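Possible regression after last week's pipeline update?

I re-ran a chain I had predicted before the update to compare outputs. Posting the input and the new output here so someone can diff against the archived version. Not blocking, just want to make sure nothing changed silently.
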Amino acid sequence: MNFKRLNTNISIILNWYVTKFSRDLCLPSLPAIAIALNTQDRYLKYTVSFYFLGMGVSRFFFTPLSDMFGRRHIILYSLPVFILGSAICAFAPDITAFIIGRSMQALGIGCVTALGWAMIGDVYGPDESTKALAYLSTFAMWAPALATAIGGHLQSAFGWHASFYFLTVSGILLYLQTIYGLKETNEQLLPKAQIIRQVAKNYALLIIEPEYWRYIMTFSLTFSGTVVYYSTAPFLFINTMHIPPHIYGYFAFATVAGLITGKFLAVHTVEKYSVDFTLLLGLIISSIGGALMVIFALIFRSNSTWFNVFIVLLPSLIYFMGNGVMSPTSKAGTVTLVPGTAGTAAALFGLAQGVVASAAGIACAHLPNTNGLGMGTMFCLISVLAMVSMWVFKPKNKDGTPSISGFG
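New output (post-update):
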């Protein structure tokens, strides 16, 4: 038995789970936190946006550093930031302290997922990495749904502080596991000067590549619907529809099911058709989800709570299915487009994703939240903008006109 691979696999899975739990565990508690901290709902929605922005910034800065200092060292330096941020949230006396705590959580844990991908490459090599990544990622597929479900029960049973106690303890245990269970996987550390020059060169190559921006912008815009949903849904379902937090927590299984279905659909579509066709398919599916939510919000007025839940949750599932189609396709496109820039491409991708998603979440925080109209409108808007981006950044023909061959 290869104990190094086994310990690395355990570390990767635990890191991924803590990352997903840190993002989603507290979602059912957001309405209660707004009341406890005596602040407006929109400020709690901002915290979701700031969290995703912090995740992107963390990935952008810390992932390249792991080539110089090692994966394990970066995790050991970043986890204490996450632990401290979790503790600050648990004891936050006001919204300012809470925002600071959530930002620290994101900065501390944001790079961990990307470092997991890198560790797989270190341990398994180019021939086995794809299979290993597919195998290990199956363990993390349902982590967001589990996190939200557990968070709902923690909120109903113990109150909003419990989620952050849970995350603080989880961070400490993960830190101890990293110290005693994880060995350094990057055995060929590169000189600092070489890394800095190479990263700068890679960024220069990527920034001037229109097709790279097409992948980034189309997915980042569509992904921003995730932040729109995460920041809006708790208040819509819990405050407006009066769904108990422990019941709302299970709604995440619908959106995760949509994501997983979309990812499987993407695999089969890419094999049969083109990458561009698959991206366009994802955008169309997301647009349908947004349009259905708007139509349902405008047409239906019901006294049935569960009917109102259904006409929001079904379009959300469809939107997330489109997101699932785009996610693996666009990510694969970014890291393979320019040879030798995979790590840098992933870091820049994460930053752009965080910036666009946080902007969409902040914008949505100011829309009406009495039904799905505001959320559905945002879904439609960002899907249309993603289609525009896909066209604007399309590679040009020799005569300077956009090529449309990829849409066939």
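Follow-up from reviewer: compared with the archived run. The two ends are 48 Å apart (CA to CA). Marking as no regression found.
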